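Consider the tokenized backbone below.
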């Protein structure tokens, strides 16, 4: 059985505005019928949003992710999560607030691609290899900031 991280409940209750807005559009299978979980534990990490069906993690980054050693920490974290077979999409909070439709389209497109690939056995936890690299998805998601 999956054991939740001790901080997961606190994070669910204290979500930033951008996370609340995105969650309101992801919950209850509103995005293409994909079920998303919020503040989901993957190893020692808590992912903002996860679709286990599509093996997709969606992370929202605020200003703190651009300073100090945050990019290096994010890269180590993403590598761990990718080793579990997930694809990590990262979006700036600002993109969610200003361009929600673009963010949702990118998430939906990735979820559909991943679910299709998984149904053909091209990805899965046992393979441990992501269908698409975080860098490729990152270019897609980071562009939504502009």
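A designed sequence for it:
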């Amino acid at each position: 059985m999956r054991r939740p991280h001790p901080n997961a409940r606190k994070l669910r209750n204290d979500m930033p505005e951008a996370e609340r807005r995105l969650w309101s559009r992801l919950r209850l299978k509103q995005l293409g019928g994909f079920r998303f979980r919020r503040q989901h534990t993957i190893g020692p990490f808590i992912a903002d949003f996860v679709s286990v069906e599509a093996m997709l993690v969606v992370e929202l980054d605020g200003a703190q992710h651009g300073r100090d050693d945050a990019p290096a920490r994010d890269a180590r974290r993403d590598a761990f999560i990718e080793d579990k077979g997930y694809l990590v999409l990262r979006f700036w909070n600002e993109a969610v607030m200003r361009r929600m439709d673009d963010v949702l389209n990118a998430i939906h497109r990735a979820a559909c691609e991943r679910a299709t690939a998984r149904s053909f056995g091209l990805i899965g936890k046992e393979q441990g290899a992501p269908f698409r690299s975080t860098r490729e998805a990152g270019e897609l998601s980071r562009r939504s900031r502009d």
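The chain has one domain: 8-143.
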